[in-house]
Design a protein that fits this description.
The protein has 390 residues and is an alpha+beta fold. The protein has helices at 16-43, 48-56, 75-88, 90-109, 112-124, 238-274, 286-314, 320-345, 356-366, 373-385; strands at 129-132, 148-152, 155-166, 173-179, 188-194, 200-202, 216-227, 231-232, 276-277, 280-281. The strands form three sheets. It has a four-stranded mixed sheet with strand order 1-4-5-8. Strands 2-3-7-6 form a four-stranded antiparallel sheet, with no helix packed on it. It has a two-stranded antiparallel ribbon with strand order 9-10. It starts with 15 loop residues before the first helix and ends in a 5-residue tail after the last helix.
């Protein structure tokens, strides 16, 4: 059988430093991530030691200011790093994206004193973050959250439950949105809560279809006390901070989705060129060749879309609508491409002996996290024709 290994993605990168960075990420992926991915996912094992390595390598703070331990990289580069990591193992790529999301509030809205005190450890000190917005009864309707923070002298006391928290129970810090005032969007404030704060606990991780190595859990706040100097931004500004973070976070999900799709295409290509039926490789059959062509085209379109949105962000221009488009298109693409990859592998694609079935299970969650794809359509439509009725 011919041995045709998939070629690395030919990336258009803005600097030699960025090219070196991608080379570093690929080395880490091939040496440290890929060999253990299937086994650790099957066992539901989170690779915390790998995240320590990523932190030491400067990969957990890439889009942030080097003054605080970040990498000074544009989103155009950071997202391509995420794509490479997600192609190796989604638990890792998504974990880096969530950590960046959790760091965003302090980096963008914190005071200088807060940034000096906390960001170096968050970005390059081996810490791992989590982002706490959703609750058991308020997912898409984030403004309906009930977790409450009550002022007590120079501190706040937080009580409530957050749901669907990536890294819940293992994070070193949580960026938490809690209600400090009136009902609705204007009564929410953001806080930076230490992972070891008294009164903070996590439920057992959810039993999920995919991404079993990434813990997703409810996080409980039972009278968690945090000083006012851990409040991020102004009182009542929390939902605006949260939604601003999600605009960037959606680009992270889009990049991760393209990474998973690319991995599935690579697996399908490798199998199709090796598997022989009727005396020739199945890649020679037109019907299958057309499937591969469609998969590759969808991936290229998704990559171009998320990079276009990233370049808008890097230029300081509005990008929320494009981020929603990228998240919508790229995650739908990941679902289609991974499903087609399973089909190309036939019966083998349905077994755990090949990674195609894992890619398909993992792709599904990307259509849900950080705003379902139905919410993305609402966001896009709002930019096109205004708020509309409810």
């Amino acid at each position: 059988m011919p041995d045709r290994a998939p070629q690395p993605v030919d990336r258009q990168l803005p600097t030699e430093e960025a090219r070196d960075l991608i080379s570093l990420v690929r080395d880490i992926a091939q040496q440290e991530i890929v060999p253990k991915a299937a086994e650790e996912e099957d066992a539901g094992r989170f690779p915390r030691e790998l995240f320590t390595l990523l932190s030491r390598s400067g990969l957990l703070g890439l889009p942030y200011d080097s003054e605080y331990g970040g990498g000074d990289q544009p989103y155009e580069v950071y997202l391509q790093v995420l794509e490479e990591l997600a192609a190796a193992r989604l638990t890792v790529g998504l974990g880096v994206s969530v950590h960046s999301l959790a760091s965003y509030a302090l980096a963008a809205y914190g005071t200088k004193e807060q940034q000096v005190e906390h960001l170096p450890a968050m970005l390059g000190g081996g810490m791992l973050g989590a982002y706490c917005l959703s609750e058991p009864h308020s997912g898409s309707d984030a403004a309906a959250l009930r977790t409450r923070a009550v002022r007590d002298g120079d501190a706040w006391v937080i009580t409530g439950t957050k749901a669907w928290i990536t890294h819940g129970g293992i994070a070193d810090f949580y960026t938490v949105m809690a209600r400090t005032g009136e009902e609705g969007p204007r009564g929410i404030t953001a806080f930076l809560v230490p992972g070891d704060a008294p009164g903070l606990s996590a439920a057992p991780p959810e039993k999920k279809m995919g991404m079993k190595g990434s813990p997703t859990a409810q996080v409980h706040f039972d009278g968690v006390r945090v000083l006012d100097d851990r409040r991020i931004g102004e009182e009542g500004q929390g939902l605006a901070i949260a939604l601003s973070a999600l605009d960037s976070g959606r680009l992270g999900i889009a990049a991760c989705a393209i990474g998973v799709a690319q991995a599935a295409l690579d697996e399908a290509l490798s199998y199709a060129t090796e598997r022989r039926q009727f005396g020739k490789p199945i890649a020679d059959f037109q019907g299958l060749r057309f499937m591969l062509a469609d998969m590759a085209t969808q991936i290229e379109a998704g990559r171009a879309l998320y990079l276009a949105a990233a370049r808008l962000r890097d230029a300081g221009r509005p990008f929320a609508a494009q981020a929603a488009m990228a998240k919508l298109h790229c995650t739908d693409t990941a679902m289609r491409v991974t499903t087609d990859a399973v089909q190309i592998l036939g019966g083998y694609g349905y077994t755990a002996d090949f990674p195609a079935e894992r890619y398909m299970r993992e792709a599904k969650v990307l259509q849900i996290v950080e705003g379902t794809n139905q919410i993305q359509r609402m966001v896009i439509a709002r930019h096109l024709v205004g708020p509309g009725g409810r």
